[in-house]
């Protein structure tokens, strides 16, 4: 099985938002960064993968199994770390474990205790007294302790201090030494993607823009800066989006070789960050 997640023509309509024929796949054994602006549909898709929201049409397969037909079997193999706390606020970790552990055949108590110690989490204190970072650590400890093959993460580093964020990303790298594990990692902190992502899936306004290997994005996209006089109807076709001032322009391209041949040393060409790609995509949509 090459793909751990497969979405085929999935659509979902809300009052003010739509997912539009969403189709993409997530490869097994890799970390896929899931990016898009607020309101683009990332959290909706993650909740669909947990069958918390059902699509209006289309099909979702996880581990090669139809989600609607094999929900229980699939969820046994998934770990979840969401930005919004999904634990019982009034209960302690010790009390929550008594509920969660029996639900998983693969629960490993020794792993759970290891992560509690590593994250310095008190077992008897109620969750509502935890900081946001501590709640995230607790969610991660539960997710990692039942041998999950797929981790779904929605803003997992939000609210974490910089030191633990680095430790958290290192922990994920260590987990990925097991090539049977896969991670779908949604985050607005694009530098986290730089450190850990093998692939990037980018969605915008409920539509799939691309899924590409990280190195391919670095090779394919660039930000170009130059004098406004260099632009005309023909040269502007080399750019996905352009921001102009009275004397200069800044633009995003995925035709780097064409731009180099066309403009030579008259422009400055720099590698595009994920943030650049998101920004210029939004501008293109706004000016469409």
UniProtKB/TrEMBL annotation:
Top-level taxon: Bacteria
InterPro entries for this protein: AAA+_ATPase, ABC_transporter-like_ATP-bd, ABC_Transporter_VariousFunc, P-loop_NTPase
Residue intervals of the ABC transporter domain: 5-230
Pfam families attached to this UniProt entry: ABC_tran
Keywords of this entry: ATP-binding, Nucleotide-binding, Transport
PROSITE patterns: ABC_TRANSPORTER_2
Example GO molecular function: ATP binding
Presence of the UniProt keyword ATP-binding in the record: yes
PANTHER family per record: ABC TRANSPORTER ATP-BINDING COMPONENT (PTHR42939:SF3), ABC TRANSPORTER ATP-BINDING PROTEIN ALBC-RELATED (PTHR42939)
Protein name (record): Sodium ABC transporter ATP-binding protein
Organism, as annotated: Alkalihalobacillus trypoxylicola
């Amino acid at each position: 099985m090459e793909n751990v997640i497969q979405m085929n023509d999935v659509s979902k309509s809300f009052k003010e938002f739509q997912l539009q024929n969403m189709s993409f796949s997530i490869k097994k054994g890799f970390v896929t960064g899931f990016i898009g602006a607020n309101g683009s549909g990332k959290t909706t898709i993650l909740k669909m993968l947990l069958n918390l929201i059902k699509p209006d049409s289309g099909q979702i397969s996880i581990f090669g199994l139809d989600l609607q037909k094999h929900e229980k079997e699939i969820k046994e193999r998934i770990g979840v770390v969401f930005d919004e706390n999904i634990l019982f606020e009034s209960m302690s970790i010790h009390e929550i474990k008594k509920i969660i552990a029996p639900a998983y055949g693969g629960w490993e108590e020794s792993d759970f205790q290891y992560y509690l110690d590593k994250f310095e989490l008190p077992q008897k204190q109620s969750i509502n007294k935890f900081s946001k970072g501590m709640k995230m650590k607790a969610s991660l400890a539960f997710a990692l302790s039942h041998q999950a093959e797929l981790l779904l993460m929605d803003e997992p580093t939000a609210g974490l201090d910089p030191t633990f964020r680095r430790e958290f990303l290192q922990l994920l790298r260590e987990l990925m030494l097991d090539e049977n594990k896969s991670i779908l990692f949604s985050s607005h902190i694009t530098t986290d993607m730089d450190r850990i992502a093998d692939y990037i899936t980018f969605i915008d306004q409920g539509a799939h823009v691309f899924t590409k290997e990280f190195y391919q994005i670095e090779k394919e996209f660039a930000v170009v800066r130059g004098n406004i006089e260099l632009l005309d109807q023909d040269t502007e076709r080399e750019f996905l989006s352009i921001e102009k001032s009275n004397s200069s322009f800044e633009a995003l391209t995925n035709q780097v070789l064409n731009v180099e041949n066309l403009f030579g040393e008259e422009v400055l060409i720099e590698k595009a960050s994920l943030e650049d790609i998101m920004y210029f995509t939004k501008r293109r949509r706004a000016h469409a």
